[in-house]
Predict the structure.
Amino acid sequence: MKRIYIFKRFERFWHWSQAALIITMGASGFEVHGTYELLGYETAQEVHTTAAWMLICLWLFAIFWHFTTGEWRQYIPTTDKLVAMMRYYMSGIFTNAPHPFKPTQLSKHNPLQRLAYLFVQVIINPTIWVSGLLYLYYAQWGAWGLSWLNLADVAFVHLVAAFMMVMFLIAHIYLATTGHTPTAHIKAMITGYDEEPENSDEE
């Protein structure tokens, strides 16, 4: 088994911290929405707001880190092996076909992952943050000249974005189990090392 160092320490910290905060926000947010009751409305709202500010701070630091280290290039979309990855996820994964993409430090994400992460960063995240901050500072709308907005519409947009994030999280967890073993990708994000069978096909 070959071990290749892929994920730096901060990437692993950022990944797991972000995951914990997103799950916390999802659980508390849906309670605030009235989907179920566990902590109580006031506590759930405090947890949701606190986790949101913590995640904003984490993202700001992560943006700084990605741009100062050049790691932002990992998310540039590419069509290289895009069709091969689509075929792999649609059929090859069920027939034990060789994985068409081998991660390296310079190219950590396959083309479908890049598109998915770009969608999250460009569509889902901004929608969640803008709608969430508008909802949080509803009392300031008049001073900001936003009286024309409708609170129900803002809440609906925030809820739709939250469901999109849940769908991404479910897909992300599933695909994390599709390595050469069900836990290979998860271990890589814990240790930083990706393990590749010695007899794997070289591209």
The helical segments are 9-32, 41-69, 82-90, 111-136, 151-175, 184-191. The domain at 2-196 is CATH 1.20.950.20 (Fumarate Reductase Cytochrome B subunit).
